[in-house]
Write a structure and sequence with these properties.
Layout lengths: L2 E7 L15 H16 L4 H6 L2 E2 L2 E8 L8 E11 L3 E9 L5 E10 L1 E2 L8 H4 L1 H12 L3
Antiparallel strand pairs: 1-4, 2-7, 3-6, 4-5, 5-6
């Protein structure tokens, strides 16, 4: 499976009273990782939305392992964990500056028509994405 990597600088506003990253901010960073993965595969989520297609989250699992703190740089690894042509499961790992695992997560998505929220078959609507996702799921680097 192909893996995309990106870094995020932890900002003060992203931390809680304990001085660690507030748990919901990791979800925002997962989106950053997902968007970067899509770009690394040669596509644009914004362009897909312009064509009237959205990709909502249908399920989410998150295991918090080690906190990240203000001023640290988090490294996000994102990959296509599963792909069926209709449903995509993205995998995520986030690491501390010392390379320790801070978070492990998966998010499931389907593509739907913006006006009706009716699911679509990615294979039919976006054959290039379909081929790239199949390849990415099979060839994680």
């Amino acid at each position: 499976m192909f893996t995309s990597n990106t870094e995020v600088q932890v900002r003060y506003a992203e931390t809680d009273q304990m001085g660690i990253v507030y748990h919901a901010n990791y979800l925002v960073w997962m989106e950053l990782g997902r968007t970067k993965l899509i770009e690394d595969l040669g596509f644009s989520y914004a362009r897909m939305e312009e064509e009237g297609i959205l990709s909502p989250v249908t399920s989410l699992t998150v295991d918090y392992k080690k906190p990240l703190k203000y001023g640290e740089k988090a490294t996000i690894h994102t990959w296509v964990s599963e792909y069926s042509g209709v449903r995509v499961v993205y995998g995520y790992e986030m690491f501390t500056p010392d390379g320790e695992l801070a978070l492990k997560a998966h998010s499931s998505h389907v593509c739907v028509k913006k006006d009706s929220f009716k699911p679509i078959n990615i294979r039919k609507y976006f054959p290039d994405w379909d081929a790239a996702y199949k390849n990415a799921a099979e060839n994680r680097n």
